Amino acid sequence: MVELKSSRDREKMRGAGRVVAEVLEILRDTVKPGVTTRDLDVVADREIRHREAIPVFKGYQGYPASVCVSINDQVVHGIPGTRVIHPGDLVSIDLGAVLDGFVGDAAFSMFVGNPPNDRAKELLQVTEEALYKGIEASRVGGHLGDVGAAVQQHVEAHGFSVVRDFVGHGVGRKMHEDPQVPNYGTPGRGLLLKSGLAIAIEPMVNVGTHQVDVGADGWTVTTRDHSLSAHFEHTIFVSEDGPEILTALR
Ligand code: MF3
Ligand code: CO
């Protein structure tokens, strides 16, 4: 069942989204060679709580941290630990927070220093562009298939692949609500988009195969061929005035 949000809900979701955006900016500045993924978790947890919000990931289905940090061939859901960040690493950071009863959820990828090669650099650019193509397609009167198709077309036009096994989602009082928001699809198909729909669009894009595996820790998702993977996510609100990005800094 897809719940449409009121304008009061929308205002609260702006607050949650702002927290996530601010803390992700801080994490971006914290990523440096020599920093461990656990250092990022400590910063994330502290900065979320400093804003009177609560980390949503912690304890979610047993997930043990406040942030996901996924490096190189890790796609999503990397658990922070003792791993040290190195120059040239592709680091993906995913963060969720609840404020005033509503969730914000967003992610970005970045290189530590220079990208290792041109294809890696292109992966990052294309994945972020694909997210914005999906956001652009999130319009009242359109369909969910338009969103997935916009993402998929852009990614595949550049010879990259879209992960199928994990998808975006509705978001609101809970992190994961209906509908599922795949990063692939057919224009004109799927749920009719209405004003008040809040969704997290989150393309996960690989240089090689779209196939992924879940690690022995039960969480960390890696590309099956160990090619690089990037991830960008925003929480957005579909309204008559167009899509509003709730997790952007403004
Ligand atoms: N953005 C991710 C998602 O929507 C984050 C979830 S990580 C988890 O699935 F640990 F909370 F599961
Ligand atoms: Co999400």
Short description:
The protein is an alpha+beta fold and 250 residues long. The chain is built from four helices and 15 strands.
Structure description:
This protein is of the alpha+beta class and 250 residues long. The protein contains 4 helices and 15 strands. α1 (7-30) packs antiparallel against α2 and α3 packs antiparallel against α4. The chain is 28% helix and 27% strand. The relative contact order is 0.19. The structure holds 2-amino-4-trifluoromethylsulfanyl-butyric acid (MF3) and cobalt (II) ion.
SSE inventory with pairings:
Elements: H1 7-30, H2 37-50, E1 54-55, E2 67-71, E3 74-76, E4 90-99, E5 102-111, H3 118-136, H4 144-157, E6 161-162, E7 168-170, E8 177-181, E9 197-201, E10 204-206, E11 212-214, E12 221-223, E13 229-231, E14 234-239, E15 242-245
Antiparallel strand pairs: 1-4, 2-4, 3-12, 4-5, 6-10, 7-8, 7-9, 9-14, 10-13, 11-12, 14-15
Helix pairs in contact: 1-2, 3-4
This protein binds 2-amino-4-trifluoromethylsulfanyl-butyric acid and cobalt (II) ion.
Tell me the number of structural domains: 1
Shape: globular
Q: What topology, given as strand order, has the largest sheet?
A: 8-7-9-14-15
| The CATH homology group name | Creatinase/methionine aminopeptidase superfamily
Number of strands: 15
Main β sheet profile: 5 strands, antiparallel
Mean pLDDT comes to 98
Question: Could you list some keywords that capture this structure?
Answer:
250 residues, alpha+beta, Creatine Amidinohydrolase, five-stranded antiparallel sheet, four-stranded antiparallel sheet, 4 helices, 15 strands, 28% helix, binds 2-amino-4-trifluoromethylsulfanyl-butyric acid, binds cobalt (II) ion
